[in-house]
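To: structure desk
From: M.T.
Subject: fold request, one chain
Message: Could you run this one when you get a chance? Sequence is below, nothing fancy, just the single chain.
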Amino acid sequence: MKAVELHSFTKDGLVLAERAEPAVGPHEVKVRVRAVSLNYRDHMVTSGMYGIPAEALPLVPVSDGAGEVVAVGAAVTRFKVGDRVTSMMTRDFISGELTPERQAAQNGGPLDGMLQEYAVLPEHALVAFPSHLSYEEAATLPIAALTAWNALTEGGAAPGRTVLLQGTGGVSLAALQLAKLFGARVIITTSKEERRARLLELGADVVLNYKTSPDLAGEILAATDGRGVDMVIEVTGLSGMQTSLSVLRLGGYIGFVGLLAGMGDAPDFTLPLLFKNARIRGVLTGSRDMYEDMLRAIGQHQLKPIVGEVFALADFQRAFERYQSSAVFGKVVIRLD
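Reply: Done. Structure tokens follow.
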């Protein structure tokens, strides 16, 4: 079978290789992978930023994928041949709190991921997805959408509450769609004016251009009549925390989900955090229970994730380049036909 392997943390470290099809153990499921989607985590893994040692290479990257069950182990009870399923990034995070043991078993590094024609996973590490979704759409959900769902539910997204979203990356677009399911009001920022109309079509109540705005914080506060937003889904990293805290209402919530602006020195925001009586919580995807709750909501409302561009397996390098360019509105997907 064909698989993309990561051999080094360099520009040419990804290689299309041939592997033997994996065998299925008693509690395992073999999936014919039909599509995968790219996330910032995959960039971190392939560039060496994720902390995976070189001794762990080669490995199959990309945590998020969807496909069809083609074989099941003798003791499998959750799935049958023909079921359509997606992976999860944290394979063993079923419910409850995230423990070090549950966090360690991660798809796409250090464990082999989904950028291969066949993947064998424990039955507990797979979830069936709604019938109205294509493989490409379902492949976008395990990290971006689940992270957004986790942050929104923890923050109490509901009618009458205002959510601030930053940019138009995978988590922010998923959070926009899901926040509207909860009935929340959404303010979203972008640096690309041509995306304004699309964001409004998706349900955004206020769209602000952070590149051209002379006073972004002032505009956000004005959009809330000076009260501030109820929650921020923080994707930029610590460098953006001062701005996020400045537009947060007293007692508001910040779901810290990403570090797109990098991991450099951050300003001291101790006093704003204290005086706002704010809650800040790191969000690393979510449990299988959360994922299944989200998928039920997606199925009930017939929600369709935003797929930006789709590439063939042979063009996987181009897919990674397009993802890293930030030029694609919606998720970058690779099909494995």
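Reply (cont.): The chain has a mean pLDDT of 95. Let me know if you need anything else for the meeting.
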